[in-house]
Amino acid sequence: MTRPARPRTAILISGRGSNMVSLLKAAEDPAYPASFVLAASNRPEAPGLVHAASAGLATLALDHRAFPDRAAFDAALDAGLRAHGIDLVVLAGFMRVLTPGFVEAWAGRMVNIHPSLLPLFRGTHTHAQALAAGVRLHGCTVHFVVPELDAGPIIAQAAVPVRPDDDEDSLAARVLAQEHRLYPAAVALVASGGARLDGDRVVFAAEAVGGDGALLSLPV
To answer: pTM of the entire structure?
Structure first.
């Protein structure tokens, strides 16, 4: 399948969409390789939908509470994405577990950012998990979405030190700052074809990797 020059990209949110804001800011550069055209949410009251509309994106609000089960919600979401001609799906604080059928339908075309250095600390309350475990490094991970929660092949990661005086809020704030740097770069890598899913691993294009093996265009 031929990759679109600038994939039509949907951002899925459940709240304020702070990572969405960072993505839209990055896309103000005409050279950014993804075209963000739709923001969708499972919560009609999500503040991020207002921001998306003000930025010129179409919006789609599907209240998950109005559907009898996850499969019905996912079917409606899938139909909405296809109606808007979406090529790439970006999860940005989308607090829904997607059904295996939906995930498989968008395999290799759906990415997520998770607030931990996967495979450590899957699920929720990751900062509390990190503090309880006593790790010295914490961070965030961008990965392709697979049916197993927070288990998809890793595209990029960013780390922050865990300080002796950290609590959940201070640690979360430093991780979020890295999310806002990492996600636009990682989504650009996927949208441009610099990273793609091949089975259960990520394959990087030669131009995305420097001579020392380091990924280009990602924050350090």
So the answer is: 0.92
